[in-house]
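Report of the visiting student (M.T.), summer placement. My assignment was to run the structure pipeline on a short list of targets and document each run. The first record concerns Glycoside hydrolase family 16 protein.
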Amino acid sequence: MATRFDDHFDDSDLDRSVWLPHYLPAWSSLDATAADYSVADSCLTLRIGPGQGVWCEDDHEPPLRVSGVQSGNHSGPVGSTQGQQPFRPGLRVREKQSEHWGWTPRLTGLEITARMDLSPRSMASCWLVGREVDPRECAEICVFEVFGDTIVAGESAEVGAGLHAFRDPVAPEDFATSRVPIDVSRFHTYGLEWTPDEVSFSVDGRLLRTCPTPPRYPMQVMLAVFDFPERGGPDEAAHVPNLVVDRIRETP
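After the run finished, the structure tokens were exported:
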């Protein structure tokens, strides 16, 4: 029986055979999309410090800054439209990416134990997305998405989970948020169970919601923290958002 994926982040750096510390670099470059991260105390920390630039600054609206890692990557040649998660029609590859398939789960369980420190202008998320080797295989399964402006400190937050179809002609659009009575600044375990017929989402083992007819193709895993400079007020500008991941694994 194959060993199920399980990363405790026990080394001094990311396992580069699995993780690429960049966010969708085909639309920009590896240099310009490098994550601000560290691996220490058996945790991966993704943060957005003062030096983190705007992602795809001359093209993406609204402006955003992001630190992310992804478990797969590829693109077509420069000038082509073959890339992952294009954010507008006709987007062209700026830097050709080598093929990298570090972890591409399919029809499995997944758990991620994480905490986050967010301001009203930031967000953290874990999601699975089609590899887009076939451009139709582009749907998303969002394990969790938390915006800082939904957090009631120490009490609750709105947790988004579900499916995004994007350009997949078959996958449904089925995404919703639920207010969950947790302190997201402390570690919690966000999970999914993915079968051919449905995908269910949970927080600390409690069912959040279930979506029927999910995509069935292999997907890569994405972890990221985002900052939206146009949101919030001047008091949030100096805040350093972060997402701290203690463990991510496939479950039986």
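Residues 36 and 51 are 9 Å apart (CA to CA). The first strand starts at residue 6 and ends at 7. I thank the supervising group for their guidance throughout the placement.
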